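W.,

You were right to be curious about this one. When I first looked at the sequence I had no strong expectations either way, so I just let the prediction run and decided to look at it fresh. Below is the sequence, 338 residues in total, followed by the output.
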Amino acid sequence: MLEVLGLGPAEEAVYSALLARPTASAQELAQQTGLDRVESARILLDLAARGLVALATEAGSGAPDSSGRGPDRYRLTPPSVALAPLLVEQRNALHRAEAAYSMLTEQYRSAAAHAAGSVVEVVVGVEQVAHRFHQLQRGAQQELLVFLIGAPIAVPREDADVSESSALDRGVDFRVVAAKDYLDDVDVARDLRAAISAGLELRVVDSLPLKMIVSDRDRAMVPLDVAGSDGVPSAIVVHRSGLLTALVHLFEREWVHARPLYTTTTGVRVDAQADPQPTEGELEVLSLLLAGISDRRAASQLGLSIRTVERRTRRLMDLAGADSRLQLGWHAARAGWL
């Protein structure tokens, strides 16, 4: 647990053992942790040098050493005092790493030989396509938007499920629109039922124009179907640009008109029609917005992400046919939503 603050396993064992008692000698801690006395004494001296422990007595109880004194005893320095500088140091290191990451990303984009090369990247081959797909899913921190059509080509369904589960475990806002025939496979329906139970939101349409994944609205990947490609899978990776904005807009339009998918005891069921009325969660967002609360505060009060609040607000405006939040409030009052 304390490795992130610079303590190794043996150091953490000694530190944790001392945490449960007022003072202790190297011999006592060695017996408690299973380390030998010399190693325990060395670790205590190192922790003392770093300010994590302090010498409690110079002549403690127990068998005297060669000088006639009892063994030295140590106590913990209050963690709020001793560990705070280490935590600050780690935070500063993370900030420096983030700054370096941003700089390297910009340098990479600037070094592209052609202007279009920094916007669209062509990826060819099963391994390369699968690698970039997993990069997009595993690198997402806030949101994943996915179109599903046809059978998987470069990325087997079981491999996609692993990345999918990892994203859901991280709390990523994961929305999927699937073509209706994608659910015909029994195994796919079973996997989707488990994913929906884990937090994935899924809707269904009769057809989709393309297969796609968008990660944090920063990058997207779209498979290519090029005549004469000898069946070798290929795709384009689209970086932040007007093209990426258009792909996100396409997803949002399909999402609004798609039919929700619900889990059942035997699989999944498509709702006959998208619900024309706001959901309970959307009404919670609406009530806070009409009270003058900002999106950020609403997200905090409801325990949601900013993107979820914005998405629910967008759907409310679509249902109301409103172009502004003022019009949304007028329609909500007239329709009796609240």
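Here's what jumped out at me. Residues 84-110 form the longest helix (27 residues). And, maybe more interesting for your project: The mean pLDDT is 80.

Coffee later to discuss?

I.
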